[in-house]
Amino acid sequence: MPVNTVIMKAAAPCNLNCSYCYEYNRGNDAWRLKPKLTTTEIATQIGRRISEYCLATKTNKFQVSLHGGEPLLLGPQKLRDVFDALVLNTPQIRLHLGIQTNAVLVTDEILDILEDYGAAVGVSIDGAIEHNRWRVDHSGNQAYDKIIRGLELVRKRKRMFAGLLAVVDLSSEPEAVLDALGKFEPPSIDLLPPFGNYDNPPFGAPGKYSLGEWMTRAFDYWIASPNLQRIRVRYLEDALVAVASGESRSDWFGVRPPGYFVVATDGDYEGLDSLKVAGDENGRKTGLTIWNASLLDLLNHEVMKVRSKGIEGLCDECRTCPIVSWCGGGYLPTRYGRGNGYNNPSYYCMDMKRFFPHVGRWLAGRREIEPATVLEINRRIHMLETPRTNPAALGQK
Q1: Which terminus, N or C, of the chain has the lesser number of Cβ atoms within 10 Å?
Q2: CA separation for the pair 113, 119 (Å, rounded)
Q3: 122 and 165 in contact (C-beta within 8 Å)?
């Protein structure tokens, strides 16, 4: 399983305290045991590991994305020092740098530094002020106004604005959320379903809509709105590609292994960060560090291998489902619980069984779609909606 991206935890704590956050408010406090900030020594060693890996695999480009917590807690000088260390230790590599921030600490000085290194900036915001009710500071006060101030500074530098990341609130109207996000004219929008699984359900009371209903309405609005069609909405776009090609390209839809890994502020290699909703040990902690293990060593670890088993790594119910090549069994963290580890359908299984056929019907109605693809889409939808169909009769595409 090749990788091309490291999520580098620049800061363990965060200056916000979002109620739904899997990092801080879902029962996992592992971050408290980590150093508050990363160091230039860790950045140096990450750079060396990237160079070592690229030389061994004959690749010449790699991405480093600073996350947290809130990575801008580093402050201007340490941010520059970290970027310097990464660049100086990857001399033969085309290194693409990025940062995911809540934008509260964004200043022109910070943006000057990011611009010096050609870094892309993603901003986390959930829509208009009413959609950001859970995005609060440590006193419980709304953070929207401060986020907007920083976001507007980022937007002035269009070449570095990578897009928006929004956690879906199922009590909100999807059309209103997309309109609110679209007004910022982002290149892309990353819609994150509420994180949860069978042992640790999504934050808060049930929303107005199920995830399947919300995403279906969001899809319809996206494809019907000329202004929004210019914006890549990853969850919706990835679903379209999965149905059209018969193969998921996204780790949201489970089968394709994500091409990234995490390095914590102490230099520990970790698996998917969002697996914290599944507990501290389950599929996330490797016991390896950047000091004692190469990236090739990491890729041979069971924590990484569990992400690359494809359809064979799914439970029986998923493997025989007609739309498994579309949904891929769902996002790995959402499969956890019931005493079966990850050997379950996704917590959002019924939502995907609603959402994907809707996408399929829309796609099958397009004149430009090949007749063979239309037949395959309709066949899978028919099998899904005909319970007596023998699943063994379905040949995987």
Answers
A1: C
A2: 9
A3: yes
Reading the block at residue 311, the tokens are: 């359809």
* For residue 307, pLDDT beyond 90: no
- In this structure, which amino acid lies at residue 199? D
Report in angstroms the alpha-carbon separations of 121 from 53, 154, 163: 25, 8, 7
| Number of residues in the chain | 397
CA–CA gap between residue 28 and residue 284 (Å, rounded): 12
When the pLDDT of each residue in the chain is averaged and rounded to a whole number, the result is 91
pTM here? 0.93
Contact status, residue 166 vs residue 130, Cβ threshold 8 Å: no
Contact 113, 80 (CB under 8 A): yes
> Contact, 163 vs 154, CB < 8 A?
no
Cα–Cα distance between 19 and 142 in angstroms, integer? 11
Phi then psi dihedrals of residue 7, to 5 deg: -90, 105
Which secondary-structure segment (H or E) carries 365? Answer: none
CB 333 within 8 A of CB 277: yes
